[in-house]
Amino acid sequence: MVVTMNIRNEDIREILVEIPEGHKHIRTKITLQDGSELVFQEAAVANIARAYITVKTHPQKESVKLKGAHVNGKKPGYADWQLLEE
Hints:
This protein is α+β, with helices and mostly antiparallel strands. The chain has one domain (9-85). 19% of the residues lie in helices and 33% in strands. The protein has one helix and five strands, in the order E-E-E-H-E-E. The protein has a three-stranded antiparallel beta sheet with strand order 1-2-3. The protein has a two-stranded antiparallel ribbon with strand order 4-5. The model has no long low-confidence stretch (mean pLDDT 95).
C-alpha cells in the first residue's frame, strides 16, 4: 500500500534538528499536529537539500529524482546505501 502525504506548513507542530547524545550525525525530527513524527538521518536531509537547491537554482532543470542504491567501491566513511541522481 502506498501512502501519499502532502505536508503543509500548518500541518507541522515542530521541527527539531540536533545531534543526539552518543551520535555523530544530525537527525531531523518533524512532529506533525496529530503527533506523528518523521525522523530523517543527516544523509537523507542533505540529499533532499541538494536536490532542492539544484531545482531552485538551475536555469533549466525542473526536477531531480534520487533513487536508492547499494554502491560498490564506495569511498571510505560513506554508507553502502546512497541516494543517487537518476
